[in-house]
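Practice problem 4.
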């Protein structure tokens, strides 16, 4: 049995389609597009921390967008030749979950990580200690 099989078997249909079959959820109808509370976003499969709300912005594209991941060591980029174009796909390195794509059109000449909500779980800042993510609270110190 693979390491994440138990988790994968409990995913909702859209979570499975996105993370395991490289699908994309519909824009403007997903869970985290308009989520702007402080917190972290983790891989729905591996539970590894991927993004912080401090790097999230409204790209008006219909999906959660981030300027960068918390750590480049937990994300891998691959060329995606689907949809008659070449894009950079973003995957989690531990569970190999499809997350979304990265584009060169973020704010102030930064990147835009365009990520499917279905591949993420949001942990609000006030729940991070309870959920075992205490070490990431330092991201929100002023």
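Answer key:
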């Amino acid at each position: 049995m693979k390491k994440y099989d138990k988790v994968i078997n409990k995913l909702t249909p859209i979570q499975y389609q996105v993370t395991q079959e490289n699908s994309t959820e519909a824009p403007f109808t997903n869970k985290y597009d308009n989520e702007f509370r402080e917190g972290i976003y983790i891989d729905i499969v591996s539970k590894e921390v991927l993004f912080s709300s401090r790097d999230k912005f409204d790209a008006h594209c219909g999906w959660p967008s981030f300027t960068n991941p918390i750590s480049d060591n937990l994300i891998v980029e691959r060329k995606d030749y689907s949809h008659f174009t070449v894009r950079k796909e973003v995957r989690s390195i531990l569970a190999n979950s499809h997350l979304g794509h990265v584009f060169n059109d973020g704010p102030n000449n930064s990147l835009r990580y365009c990520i499917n909500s279905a591949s993420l779980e949001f942990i609000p800042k006030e729940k991070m200690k309870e959920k075992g993510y205490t070490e990431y609270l330092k991201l929100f110190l002023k």
